[in-house]
Design goal:
It holds the Pfam family DUF4187. The protein has helices spanning 14-22, 38-53, 58-74, 82-89, 122-186, 204-228, 242-247, 259-264, 268-274, 278-293; strands at residues 295-296, 301-302. It has 320 residues and is mainly α.
């Protein structure tokens, strides 16, 4: 209208514009068709038909039966039930105990379904047999463990005896060496071919082994010489020296020694010493070294005094 005064709205501030922008509402996205299509309907019917046609497995049937049984046992008898009506005539009410006693059962006895064809006492028989088998298995396991322990103990004893034999050989060798050294220092060296019975019994077995090795070598030489004696002799026997006769097997006397007779003779003292256990023989040699030469095998040192000051003991265990 002419001459009319128009009132202008105040301009919106920047914060109002931001609030208006945040309050904008967007329309929802267009939804799909309200009705299923023919393809969807055909797929649904085909799936439902397959579900109805599929036969349940034995496990599924048993699970369904178990669920139905549990549901039935958990549901109280309705008042319309014929059995409930008969009990109601005798004064039974829903939630009361069964029987005259106040402490009687309020729920039915649980059903224990027997799925196999075994008799009533079969389970107890199975338990008895299982218990016997379990006890037998325990006995076998215990016996095996004991045998294993015995085997390990036997192996430990064998290792211990082998270690004692090595220590005995070392102690005998040391005793023989110190004895020869003492004889040399006194100026009375021992003869090289003295009878075995004159050697100390503590290391006599070592000397006997050396004689056995020497005799074995001698027998081998005799065998070789007997073969060499069959060779033709070109020179006159009067012109052949002793070395040539020995080489040709014509004179074997230089190879025979008096030690051969020592091995053939009995040595009851050595036999008695060898019959002792290894540990006892080792102890005798160790004590001899300590008393005679002030020497400790496990210290590896010859002490200047007879008290062996500083030595922890005789055995190896005392040195650990």
């Amino acid at each position: 209208m002419a001459g009319a005064k128009c009132d202008r709205l105040p301009p919106m501030s920047q914060s109002d514009e931001e609030d208006d922008y945040m309050n904008m509402v967007f329309e929802d996205a267009p939804k799909g068709p309200k009705h299923e299509t023919s393809l969807q309907r055909a797929a649904r019917k085909r799936k439902e038909g397959e579900t109805r046609a599929r036969q349940k497995t034995k496990a599924e049937k048993e699970a369904d039966a178990e669920a139905a049984r549990e549901e039935a046992l958990a549901t109280a008898l309705p008042e319309t039930n014929k059995g409930f009506k008969m009990m109601a005539k005798f004064g039974f009410k829903q939630g009361d105990t069964l029987g005259k006693s106040v402490d009687a059962r309020k729920t039915p006895i649980a059903v224990d379904v027997k799925a196999d064809k075994g008799g009533i006492g079969l389970e107890s028989e199975k338990k008895r047999k299982f218990r016997e088998q379990w006890e037998e298995a325990e006995r076998l396991a215990k016996r095996t463990k004991e045998e294993e322990g015995d085997y390990l103990e036997m192996r430990r004893q064998e290792q211990k005896e082998k270690k004692a034999e090595r220590d005995l050989d070392s102690a005998q060798r040391t005793a023989e060496r110190l004895s020869e050294k003492e004889a040399d220092e006194k100026g009375t060296p021992e003869p090289g071919e003295k009878p075995l019975t004159d050697i100390n019994v503590l290391w006599r077995s070592r000397a006997r082994k050396r004689v056995e090795i020497q005799q074995d070598k001698q027998q081998r030489r005799e065998l070789n010489n007997s073969l060499a004696s069959r060779l033709p002799i070109l020179a006159d026997e009067g012109d052949v020296d002793n070395d040539t006769k020995v080489a040709l097997g014509q004179d074997l006397q230089p190879f025979y020694t008096t030690l051969e007779g020592d091995l053939e003779a009995d040595d009851p003292e050595l036999a008695e010493f060898e019959a002792l256990p290894v540990a006892e023989r080792l102890e005798k040699v160790l004590l001899y070294l300590r008393d005679k030469f002030q020497y400790c095998l496990y210290c590896g040192y010859q002490y200047p005094d007879r008290e062996l000051e500083g030595c922890p003991g005789v055995t190896e265990e005392e040195h650990e």
